[in-house]
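From the pipeline queue, job 12 of 40. The input is one protein chain; the requested action is below.

Action: predict structure.
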Amino acid sequence: MAGRTAGLQLRILRGNRVAQSLIKIIHRLLMASSTCATATEPIRATTNPTTEVRAPRPTYETDTQFPAVDQHLSQHERTAAHNGPGLAETQAPAPMQQERSEDLEKVVTEEQEEPKAKTSAPRMIPLWSWLIFFSIWGALARLGLSALEDYQGAPVFSLVWAQFTGCVIIGFLSQDKTIFLVDDRYTELYTGLTTGFCGSITSFSSWMLGCFAAMANVRPIFDRPNSGYNVMALLAQVIITLSVSMAALRFGATMASLAEYWLAERGWVQVRGARKGRDARNILAIILAIGCWAGAAVLVGLVPKWRGVATFAALFAPLGTLTRFYLARLNPKIKSFPVGTFAANMLGTLILAILFLLQHRTTPGHVGCQVLQGVSDGYCGCLTTVSTFVLELSTLRRRHAWKYGAVSIVCGIIIMVQVVGIDNWTHGLGGGCII
């Protein structure tokens, strides 16, 4: 009897030890998860008690056009940002910030109070080069992703995948403090990735055209019982695109927080902006920009079958991105309403509506049709952006975000209705261009 009792006590003791071990493991996992989610706790060394404790990393709120972080930027980054568009992606608050108190509007106020230094054109060449290079690949990526989802029975409209991809990347880059260090950032490459690639792979004007097509039941035409279904199709375009884009932004920011937690102590490669190596990167940017843009021009002449689907779009894409880049100078004019982004999106939507009408009401010839399609996909697609638009929505105070988002979407749809809708409902869209 005594032996059985001793054995039972031993098993209970072992069970208690296992339970304690499991509790410790769960506690550590919860602590790690909390640190990863907030991205504000210092990362402490656990293997060597004499290792220096790292200072907490500053966090802000989101993307490419807003700074509350001037105090954390290097002098070079301040100069580059203040001489680019009104508020650059390099100064955006991070999406994972829990509070909105340090939001876009406070950032804009600080931007207006600080005098801007002037940068000569030669010093802007590397930045232009990265924008040109990434805008070409952003436009091609958008066309490629749209083509992959453009088939009979697709669960969603094809453009949503490009919007999702661009918002994930910009969310990651805006939250990231590990690969691109805030206080030593290679600004030109960072701006090329955010303004150039993310801004070009997403398209506000194409989204508005999709909204109009759903509402007007054109391209393609569906057999709908009444006009109420057209309204539901329009709402589906708006709600799905906004929901997917906002979720993608948060998903990208979460991935950046995870990367910061797991890679910070593993010596991950960091893209620094120090003088050493900067000149080589700048030369590389110029070579890539010239090579890609010239290559697009050569392919336009040598491969006719690609003109309407890719090469003309690649040729016109950098012009749209550079136009948007400089229109963003208007963003600080109204702190609660990013005028620059709004102007770029509305201008691109207007031009796309006119081009769409020309494609269906005129017959400019085969090459002319390919040029019209290239300007639509390349220039208008890169002039307008959803990634920056969504980032601004997540950064503005909520009442201003609702106002900015509603005005942008309603104005975009009104432009499409005024330019294309009236002509469509009075005369009908003809056969037009065949690419």
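Job complete. The radius of gyration is 25 Å.
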